[in-house]
Structures are given as structure tokens and as C-alpha cells.
Amino acid sequence: MPIIYYDANCVYCYNYAIWLIQNGLSRRYQFAELQGETAQNLFENYPETKQYDSVILQEGDHFEYKSDAITTLITTLTNYKWIGILLHLTPKPLRDLGYQLFADNRDKMWKTHWHQPNAYEQSFFID
């Protein structure tokens, strides 16, 4: 099963995970906290992943980071596939710049709340 590692201390990251689920993310995906036990196993087995404190998409031995991971995930959503394709057509350095600008400034932007997951949403989270 593919695993999506996310920053559990980031309300935007968590709510993005919920948004993916609510918009048809396949049941084959699971979410794990970058601060959790599953991620610690990842970092031990794949030390090169430790340099990323951003979203990581793991499918077997294949990894995607930052905007590549976001683009791939959005492309899996039936109603948003076109956005994923447009993002994929955007040059990677530009996508990663946008990703990094958002990540660096997320605490200075608008305020949001932590979504309370229902049982179905919670079933995607492994730790």
C-alpha cells in the first residue's frame, strides 16, 4: 500500500489529507505522521528520506517529495485530475518554489481549524 507521510503538527497538511479522502482518494493509500513510528522505520530503512520534512509519497521503493507528491495525489482524484495534470505540466522548479513558499509561510497565512475526522476518514491513518 502506498503511504503518504505528512507533518502532523501542520493543520494545513492534516486538512489536506482529509480533503484528499473526502474527494475520493483510493483506499489503497494510507497516511502516516512524519513524527510517528512508521516514519521512523522509513528513515531507518531509507536514510535519504530523512532530509525531507515535507510530504513524502512512498510506493514500494519509489518516493516522491514536495510538489511531485502533491501533483501525483491530486491526479488520482477523478474530479480534480485536470488540476493535477496542469500542475504536472508546470516546471518542477516553479512547483517546488510554490510548495516551499507555502510551507515557509503557512503559519503567517489565514487561520484554520483541525478537522475532526469521522470513522471513514480516520481509517486512512496508520499512526
TrEMBL record:
It comes from the Bacteria. InterPro entries: DCC1-like, DCC_oxidoreductase. Pfam families: DCC1-like. Coiled coil: none annotated. GO terms for molecular function: protein-disulfide reductase activity. Signal peptide: none annotated. This is DCC1-like thiol-disulfide oxidoreductase family protein.
